[in-house]
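Memo to structure team: turn this sequence into structure tokens by end of day. - J.P.
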Amino acid sequence: QVQLVESGGGLVQPGGSLRLSCAASGFTFSSAAMSWYRQAEGKERELVAVITSGGSTNYADSLKGRFTMSRDNAKNTVYLQMNSLKPDDTAVYYCKARVSRGPVIRSDYWGQGTQVTVSS
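Reply from structure team:
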């Protein structure tokens, strides 16, 4: 079965760094587009970053280069390096996989999320 397990969240001071991991299993990881989303208290879930099967990335404009997404196909894992963290980055961070099984068939899978709290 498909499984996505996030880890690496926690409490960090403003200006600090954190690295999130998402371990994937149950599908062909190397062919899947992977994304990070986040949802702050009282706000709608928003896209943070995406990485394609070919390794190209895209980020939310508001991040201004503070976040970096990467993937390691040998480990079936994606990462989110977060630097210069701000209190507004406080949210539950979710990993998502988009799995294609043909030219028109695709499925999305979500992890349970990991809490990131930026506070002094």
